[in-house]
Amino acid sequence: MTASILNVENISLAFGGVKALTDVSFSVKEGSVFSIIGPNGAGKTSMLNCISGRYTPNSGNIFFNNKNVTSLQPNDRADLGMGRTFQNLALFGHMSVLDNIMVGRHHLLKNNWLTGPLYWASGAQKEELEHRRKVEEVIDFLEISHIRKSIAGTLSYGLRKRVELARAMALNPKLILLDEPMAGMNLEEKEDMARYILDLNEEFGITVVMIEHDMGVVMDISHEVMVLDFGKNLICAKPEQVMADPYVKRAYLGLEEADSEPEEVNTLEEVS
């Protein structure tokens, strides 16, 4: 059996009197694509924020590669191999694509302000060349060589999403958290992004935890799917089992149990 790279145990989170998450538990197998679905307000992004360290849960524990990371800061989790993209783009709009991606390598730098002045003697030059080589690999993989010198803020929305994914990949992560990577994209852009996610999972061996509303994409590329409902884990199973669950069909897909299965389900936007 494949070992779990991420274990979330009984996580609860509240903002004042509002409960965002209530006793949520699940595990993610190493090398898998794990999707989280549910309507707006279900606690999906709050869950990712707890995993990445932006939020500290009120109770429960999060284990990454068997290490309890519940109290660690986001940069410490990045050092352990956890990458992240955001629902709202978090690029440096005034910087080039290349510089934005290089930011993703910052935590891997060994040279500092003390050794930096000794650029040649300290090995800083060799280190910089190695980081640039890794960044170029990511740029080639995501097919954005033609915009590498472009200012990030001038790019189309779909390309900026791809650049943000590139920056997360530059972290050299073992686990990558994707918050609605295909939101606002047209059909062609969604197909490209789905292909990149599958490739980074299969070719690079990166485990993916993804929030996504496009049910067609979720069911096509996910190994497991968890449905959050008002901050609670409604079901966590293989895609076909989730689609067959009566409550999911009724509450999220608008189907009665006796209804026939739709040939294709495109989105959960109407309930989100």
UniProtKB/TrEMBL annotation:
Alphabetical UniProt keywords: ATP-binding, Nucleotide-binding, Transport
Pfam families hit by this protein: ABC_tran
Domain ABC transporter: 6-255
GO MF annotation terms: ATP binding; ATP hydrolysis activity
Secreted as UniProt keyword: no
UniProt superkingdom: Bacteria
GO annotations of cellular component type: plasma membrane
Species annotation: Pseudoalteromonas espejiana
Protein name: ABC transporter ATP-binding protein
